[in-house]
Design brief:
Elements lengths: L1 H22 L1 H46 L9 H73 L1 H9 L2 E10 L5 E10 L11 E3 L10 H22 L1 E3 H8 L10 E4 L21 H7 L6 E3 L5 E2 H4 L1
Antiparallel strand pairs: 1-2, 3-6, 4-5, 5-7
Length: about 300
């Protein structure tokens, strides 16, 4: 029983190790390729220092052949055809010696380049698989939204997607008689952080362009949003990471896949970039726009996987 348990434990450990090696195989192959390339270059340099000895020996053999050919007493025994054959043999032998000298460096260099190409191929296949998986999820979500819109309408779909709820607030208004009085008003708000997408990011003091001035921050975000739309129309596509760069937000893995696609004739999505600055259903957004807040949580209206949409 103990032996069986030991074998199971060993097998499990090897499987885990094998999985980890497979998981990190691209990094391992790249490191091996880079190290191998450096080593092959060093080996080639060392081999070059020995080439002079081979060439010197070749020069001596060629001079011996020419001396024999110039000797009149050997003219009958050592014909011009013999000279050509001997020279050819010397050249071939020299080429073989040089090839053997550089063979290890060339072989190691070829294996190193192969490792780098294999790493790139593994990453490419993984990216294709991830893009396909995301496309499937994104397609299913969009179809679900369309079914909700078809049955309940766009307003209900928007309220469900953003978890918008009615909220009663009190505010002070000035009546016709010039006196202030409190009145109750019902507004629609969506302040649950779980309702935001995975691409939402805070624009705060850690971002480029943020200042301790709410009006300036609003102006900056509007300018960056306009710039993003100009870039989208100019290039026809825009990655979310490019927008993150405009705001000084750290890039994400998803940001290098999702984004916007612009097509004036056959729009795929909204055909524009929206940071969610003027979402009237979010109370914190209203406070930011009205100058009461200097920080805002931006949520971007990405169209989906650009690689699949283009």
């Amino acid at each position: 029983m103990k032996k069986a348990e030991l074998m199971t434990t060993v097998s499990s450990s090897f499987n885990k190790m094998g999985f980890k090696l497979k998981k990190h195989s691209p990094e391992i192959l790249v490191v091996a390729g880079v190290v191998g390339t450096v080593v092959s270059a060093v080996m080639a340099c060392k081999a070059t220092t020995k080439v002079s000895d081979i060439l010197e020996k070749t020069k001596e053999d060629i001079n011996s052949i020419h001396n024999c050919a110039a000797n009149e007493s050997l003219a009958e025994e050592y014909t011009p055809e013999d000279v050509k054959k001997d020279l050819a043999i010397v050249y071939v032998q020299t080429g073989v010696k040089i090839a053997k000298l550089y063979a290890p460096a060339i072989a190691l260099g070829a294996l190193s380049l192969g490792s780098i190409l294999a790493s790139n191929n593994i990453l490419r296949q993984r990216n294709v698989a991830l893009a396909a998986a995301y496309a499937t999820v994104d397609k299913g979500f969009k179809e679900y939204r369309n079914r909700v819109v078809e049955r309940f309408g766009e307003e209900v779909e928007r309220e469900l997607r953003h978890n918008i709820k009615a909220k009663k607030i009190e505010k002070i208004v000035v009546g016709e008689d010039g006196k202030e009085k409190k009145v109750k008003e019902t507004i629609q708000v969506a302040e649950d952080p779980n309702t935001y997408s995975d691409y939402a990011r805070f624009f705060d003091d850690g971002c480029t362009g943020w200042e301790k001035d709410s009006e300036y921050n609003l102006m900056f975000l509007r300018a960056q949003q306009q710039y993003a739309n100009d870039k989208l129309r100019a290039t026809g596509r825009l990655f979310l990471n490019e927008v993150y760069d405009m705001l000084g937000v750290p890039r994400t893995k998803a940001g290098q896949v999702v984004g916007w696609v612009y097509d004036a004739e056959n729009p795929i999505g909204d055909n524009y970039v929206d940071f969610g600055i003027y979402d009237v259903h979010r109370e914190t957004v209203r406070n930011f726009v009205n100058g009461y807040e200097r920080t805002i949580l931006l949520d971007f209206n990405v169209d989906g996987n650009i690689w699949d949409l283009m």
